[in-house]
Write a structure and sequence with these properties.
This protein is an alpha/beta fold. It has one domain: Mannitol-specific EII, Chain A (3-Layer(aba) Sandwich), CATH 3.40.930. The chain is built from five helices and six strands. Strands 1, 2, 3, 4, 5 and 6 form a six-stranded mixed sheet that branches. Strand 2 and strand 3 form a beta hairpin. The longest helix has 15 residues. The radius of gyration is 14 Å and the shape is globular.
Length: 152
């Protein structure tokens, strides 16, 4: 699975304006909503925030992957943001995050959701790649970096 098959350029934002977990998640959901891939923005927000209350999706190394499953999407969708200032996500390593990747999938489609999470995790193991993302200045640059890394 290539992430650029899921991620649309208009669903990448650099920098995110939010200063806390709730606002950056909402900002990414807004990107998806404006792009026309959501059936109901409020259901998506509820699904993602409910999942986040279960356990933080801050996975460490400056990365958070908030995600949720609901019937407000027809297929797996993704939004990607680089925070203007590090955001406290309650990460497992106790450090704030800069790279935030939002995934939303239909409630009845587990496979693509798990594949995307695994793919993101593999790509983000590369510290040099993470640093490249954090120092980008535009959404186009982030998308291009992801596309290049995806196709290696």
């Amino acid at each position: 699975m290539l992430l650029t098959q899921i991620l649309q350029l208009n669903c990448v934002k650099v920098p995110l304006e939010g200063k806390d977990k709730e606002s950056v998640i909402t900002e990414l959901v807004e990107l998806l909503d404006v792009s026309g891939v959501l059936l109901d923005k409020n259901i998506v927000l509820e699904a993602v925030f409910t999942r986040e209350q279960t356990r933080s999706t801050g996975i460490g190394a400056g990365i958070a992957i908030p995600h949720g499953k609901c019937n407000a999407v027809k297929e797996l969708v993704m939004a990607f943001g680089i925070a203007g200032e590090p955001v406290d996500f309650g990460s497992v390593d106790g450090k704030p995050v800069t790279i935030i990747i939002l995934l939303v999938s239909p409630a009845d489609q587990t496979g693509p959701h798990i594949q995307a999470l695994a793919r993101i995790s593999r790509l983000m193991l590369d510290e040099q790649f993470r640093q490249s993302l954090v120092t980008t200045t535009s959404s186009d640059e982030v998308y291009e970096l992801l596309n290049n890394k995806d196709n290696e």
